[in-house]
Amino acid sequence: MIPEDLHYSEEHEWVRLDDGIAVVGITDFAQDQLGDIVYVDLPDVGEVLEAGSVVGELESTKSVSDIFSPIGGEVVARNESLDGAAEVINSDPYGEGWLLKIRPSDDEPTAGLLSPEQYTSLVSS
């Protein structure tokens, strides 16, 4: 199930704009591919991110995977609750398993991202 109200990156991150702040997480497809997530490494609040840059890591029982920033901007929050409970990303990737909140540096932060339909095509091919 791919939520219709989100924007997606080709690296399997999602973005939801909420009062001008971008909430970022990984997709259900990504968490499923990774398997049981046991650790997450996120950038610090105040860090300025470039769209497409590696900003952290997800460690699962299968592998370690980079987290890419789908948009550019400043980190205004990180999901601290994941520090001791990274498995929440597996059980609720679009809710409690969010990763970062970013104040976008661009007026149209989601312009380069995929629509739900485009993302569905990406993961089903």
TrEMBL record:
Residues bearing PTM N6-lipoyllysine: K62
Residue ranges of coiled coil: none
Pfam families assigned: GCV_H (PF01597)
Residue span, Lipoyl-binding domain: 21-103
Family under the similarity heading: Belongs to the GcvH family.
Role this protein plays: The glycine cleavage system catalyzes the degradation of glycine. The H protein shuttles the methylamine group of glycine from the P protein to the T protein.
Protein's name according to its UniProt entry: Glycine cleavage system H protein
